[in-house]
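User: I need a structural model of ABC transporter ATP-binding protein from Nocardiopsis suaedae for a docking pre-check later this week. Nothing fancy, just the predicted structure tokens so I can convert them on my end. Input:
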Amino acid sequence: MRRTRTDRARSRTRRPAPPWELPEFAKSKYYPWLEEMGSIPVRRVAARLPGQVATALRWAWRASPRDTATVIGLNVASAVLAASVLAALAGILNELFAEGPTPERIRAALPSLVLAGTAITARAALRTAAIRSQGRLRHQVELLAETELLGAVTAVRLESFDESDFCDAVYRGRDRGLHEAGRMIGYTVDILAETVGIIAVASVVTVLHPVLLPLLAATVLPVGWAAARSARMQYRRMRELSTTNRLLYIHTFTMTQRETAAELRAYNMRTPMLADYTALARYVRDSLLAIVGRQTAARATGEAASGAVTLATYAALVWMLLGGWMPLAVAGTAYVALGQGKAALDRLVNAVASFYEASLYFSDFLEVLDQARDRTPTPVGGPPPGPLEELRLDDVHFSYPGADAPALRGVSFRLRKGEVVAVVGPNGSGKTTVSTLISGLFAPDRGTVAWNGRDLADIDPERLRERIGAMRQNHSLWPATARRNVAMAEGETADEGRLHRALALSGADEVVGELPRGLDTVLDRRFKDGADLSGGQRQRIAAARGLYQRADLIIADEPTAALDAYAEQRLFDSLQHAARGATVLLITHRLASVRMADRIVVMDRGRVVEQGTHDELVRRGGLYAELYSIQAAAYEVPGVEEAS
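Assistant: Understood. Predicted structure tokens for ABC transporter ATP-binding protein:
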């Protein structure tokens, strides 16, 4: 079978074998042309350039209209002044090479000399002001881009973070896309300014002799072609390495963070982690080295062609001078104009090549925004949810992205106002998934979760969560004060009465009492005067967080896993107290603690297999009775029964 040119090119840039199996990089449905960057002709790149420049200018204008207008105006004015210097030079040379006494020729050239000097001084001042404004604009664009990305990513459905493709996209957009956003604006301004300057220079060169203009353009086109081709190869390879680079980042984070430092040492993981990191890093290095030869060849070809055309251009200028087709003064002006024009074209080509490369990575940033919009729930109107009377799950099915088996299969049960309902079952039975669906963080694939008969899909998630207090199994402590870690969104404006009530009910009042600055202590020792908490202390703060909410429903997901027996009993008493005015959904493995529940829902492999009170389920002799007897046996003291 005959191989195409594209096949041959790909074989020359084939990546080395990865150190272990990694998923292929995602195909982009948002910017499908990104996948073909290694083979897109330069003419198609040029055709897309105006649209990409317009996109960059829109972002700049959003960031700061005043600085955008200032930067463009100053650079354009500077470029026009550069052309006026060239025009003044032509006047100077014409007067100096004219016939007549030397003093008279110098006097005649003085106005042009004054004009050139004034233009040079003014241009320098404009360039200085433009650089200042451009620096201001870059920082504002970077801030705008970062806040846009964070705003978009934090609004997506929670299950999006279980999708490898989305995680790769976020990594690409955050790692390089944000960085290139500000640079892209600078390159855009350079393109506009140099384009205006070249138009001005081109008009002077054309007046001197029409043949000089195409020769001038031909000197830089090969360099531009080489730069664009090299950038395409680099970007395509970096996109292919998205998953690998994300894994490298995670390895670096794991080996350098305080949270993982103890386990890294306790389990002697330093050597194997370094070995894994080195294998991945070498794979990335070898993948990039595989394209260096082609990049170098492209640049060498472009430079050689540019040098040949430049030599031909100056040879043509000498030929026209010797042939009498161009006066000496015009030839001198043309020589300077060609040098100035080539320098301007070189700057333009470099700006276009740099802009083009930055725009590829900026497209990664735009892709994250597009993907996030597709994964963001549609805003829900209608009235906020009223006080909870009943929450019902009807035939709920749910699967995590990419999972082989569903997490929930036809789950149905209900919670009534003031009840304590416990959900128990073996690991992986779907207990935490149920709590996440009830919180509105996930949406079921099939079936409904209804608040007072109203589907949660028809309720604004943020308004729903205002009525839910959550004690999450996988809770986090934020690098903020203890007050902020309990009151969360309300932060420093927390209701002191509710705050101290939540601390007392959860037992976190004892934790706060031991902190050096009380509620104003930062819960992270990496910051000045910060403090670390033990596992049990962290869990009490998390419990206080859930109890602080003005909640109709309290979801307690393994709230006592790190607590001692005294703290555990205190928290369960608090949950019973809270249930007098709210509904409590308790998820736990400790079956001795669920005897006080009004109803117990037993789950296994994503299904509800039993429901009832503790006594009913024990008498029934099913899964609950089996689990309870196993745990009860662990607390029996040998010989006590016989002695009695």
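Before docking, keep this in mind: The CA atoms of residues 506 and 571 lie 5 Å apart.
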